[in-house]
Amino acid sequence: MTLAAPPTVPAAPRAAVGVRATARVSAATSGGTTTLPVLDGDGPFELRRLRSRGTEARVCVVGAMSAPLGGDRLRIEATAQQGAALHITSAAATLALRGPTTEPATYDVQLTVEEHAELHWLPKPLICAAGSNLRQTWTIHLAPTARLVLREEQILGRTGEPPGHVATRLTVRRAGRTLLDQEAEYGPGAPGWDGPAVLAGHRATGQLLVVDPAFENRPPEVQLLGDSPQDGQAVLTPLAGPAALATATAPDALRLRHLLDTAHT
User: Fold this and answer.
1) What is the pLDDT of residues 180-221, one digit of tens each?
2) DSSP letter string over 88-120?
3) Keywords, A to Z (predicted)?
4) What Cα–Cα distance (Å) separates residue 222 from each residue in 88, 146, 207, 264?
5) Which backbone phi and psi does 255 adopt, to 5 degrees?
6) Phi and psi at residue 187, in whole multiples of 5°?
C-alpha cells in the first residue's frame, strides 16, 4: 500500500520589519500665488503649511516618530507644477538610528519641477548615529525652464560617538537628459571614507546644488571657499548644464552650514 504524502502547508509570509510610509506634496498656481492642493503626511512625516513668502508656498516636514530606523522604507514625493514656487524645510535634524533589524533603512526623495516652476529643498541635516545604516536617494526631474535649489548635509555620529553608515545617490535629469548622477558612502564598511582623499577626518559633509537657466549665459566661476582644510572647505564648480554644485567637508555641522550658505550667496 502506498501512503500519500501529507499536504504541504505554505510557509507564513515573512512579516515586514520597519515602517513603510510615503508623504506627498504638490504645489500649483492660483490667482498669482502658489497653493498646495496636495499635502499628505504619512508615518513619521507630518507636513505643515508655513506662512507664504511672496508667491512662494512653504512646507515644513515635522518628525512624528523616531525614524529612519533599520528596516524602515520612507519616501517623500514633491511636485512643483507649472509656474509654482515651493519651499520645503524641516523642523529639526533627521536622526538615523539602529533599528530592530540589521537591514538598512531607506529614505527616498523624488522631486519634480515643471516649466517655469521653482523648488527649494532645504531641510535640516541628517545625523547618522552609531550603529545606524541608511540608504538615501534623491531622484529629480526638471523641465528645461525649471529652477532648483537643493541642500543635503550628513553629520556622521553624535557628539562623542562613532559614526553610523550612510550611502547616498543623487540623480538629476533635466529635459530628460542626465545633468548629475553621483554616489557617496561614509561610515563603517565604506573603504577609504575617512582618508585624506575623502573626508580627511571630518565628520560633516554636504552639498548645495543650484539649477538655473540663467547659468546657460553666465555660468558661475570655480571657487574654493574656507580658510583652511582643518576648519573645513568647500568647492563651487559649474556643471555641464545650467547648474552649479558646491561640495563641502567640515569638522562640525555649524561650519558646514556656513560654507554652504557662503556658496549660495
Assistant:
1) 999 999 999 898 898 888 898 899 999 999 999 999 989 899
2) EEESS-EEEB--SSSSPEEEEEEEEE-TT-EEE
3) Chaperone, Cytoplasm, Nickel insertion
4) 28, 23, 15, 13
5) -70, -30
6) 100, 180
Domain ranges of the chain: 20-201
Q: Which three cell numbers stand for residue 210?
A: 543650484
Give the separation between CA 72 and CA 89, rounded to whole angstroms: 21
**Would you call 156 helix, strand, or coil by DSSP?**
strand
Pairwise CA distance, residues 215 & 49, whole Å: 31
82: cell is 507649472
Residue 240 to residue 180: CA distance in whole angstroms: 9
pLDDT digits (tens, 9 = 90+) for 234-244: 999 999 889 99
Contact 77, 61 (CB under 8 A): no
Cβ atoms 60, 90 nearer than 8 A: yes
